[in-house]
Amino acid sequence: MTQKLSVSDLLDIAPLTIDDIHKILDRAKFFKGALADRNVPQTLKQKIIMTVFVENSTRTRTSFETAVLRLGGRLINWDEKISSAQKGESFSDTLNYLNGYAPDALIVRHFEYNAPHFVAGIMDCPVINAGDSWREHPSQALLDAFTIQEFKGGIAGMRVAIVGDLAHSRVANSNVALLTKLGAQVHLIAPQNLQPRSVSDNVRVFDRLEDGLTDCDVVMPLRIQKERMDSAVIPNDTAYFHAFGLTRERLKLAKNDAIVMHPGPMNRGIEIADEVADDPHQSAIFAQGANGVPVRMAILDLLAGNHHV
Ligand code: NCD
């Protein structure tokens, strides 16, 4: 019998207790082992999980879908492009109909700030935020924390550099909230115009990559989120790579055994050099991506699973 979380939705990191976070990370570890042994408890058997993606996605969507199917659940994908939204139906009317079909959980990605809270206000089932605007992407932060724990043995005391477009990054926001809660120190490195809107304790901001990388255990470059920017502030790709691109030479400023992570999609040659992305010793990027499945299985299981199996 798995103990449930103190929350009934996963919308942001802030409401999660340390105990909730450990339950998710422990359950993810269990599922990672169960996947390797091909012996996964079917805790979503008979359950219907809906996905509502109103913004593009590769990793988040396919790893959530894989997680549902691995747990024996069934999926219904609401696809905005072929839906009645194209016929003028409001988002809240759509959600009220979907709620009437009584799904067992709903996973939402939306370009609007706080949209998952709006969705949770309508739905009776657990709602899982798969990323909203530049605000939060909690399941990404959980899989990032899981990966750091796996590669580094723990999170407390780790120094994690997040580099790049911090002003528009929900991944950075959720990671800062989660990693500092777990006792890590975060270095946020960005040019002045891409720096975060506010910072909390245990976070330091740098505007030179060389200064921020010193003694880091983890380095996480981020994509420039051009779709969320005014065209006037979009940096030139070559100039950006010159100043902030993570090359092997620059990575040497971090600890010798530092790992590199990236939430994807990577823009090679802009925020990260090929030699770093594909480094067999220091790049944890594809392992991090693969961890999306067990971590999202844990989230789904703890929020919507049958716990008598
Ligand atoms: C990110 C996202 O969509 O928030 N990717 C992801 O989910 N792994 C980051 C991005 O778009 O750059």
The profile of the biggest β sheet is: 5 strands, parallel
Residues in β-strands, percent: 5-15%
Based on the structure, what is the oligomeric state of the protein chains? Answer: single chain
Average of pLDDT = 94
Give the class from helix and strand content and strand pairing: alpha/beta
**Total count of helical runs of at least 4 residues:** 12
Rounded to the nearest angstrom, the radius of gyration is 19 Å
Distance between the termini: 8 Å
The helix/strand series, from N terminus to C terminus, equals: HEHEHEHEHEHEEHEHHEHHH
Which runs of at least 5 residues are low in confidence (pLDDT < 50)? none
Structure description:
The structure is a single chain. By secondary structure, the protein is of the alpha/beta class. 37% of the residues lie in helices and 15% in strands. It has 12 helices and 9 strands. Strands 7-6-5-8-9 form a 5-stranded parallel sheet.
Keyword list:
globular, 309 residues, five-stranded parallel beta sheet, binds N-carbamoyl-L-aspartate, alpha/beta
Summarize the topology.
Blueprint: H1 18-36, E1 48-54, H2 59-70, E2 74-79, H3 91-100, E3 105-110, H4 115-122, E4 127-132, H5 138-152, E5 159-163, H6 170-181, E6 185-189, E7 203-206, H7 209-212, E8 218-221, H8 237-244, H9 248-251, E9 259-260, H10 274-277, H11 285-290, H12 292-304
Parallel strand pairs: 1-2, 1-3, 3-4, 5-6, 5-8, 6-7, 8-9
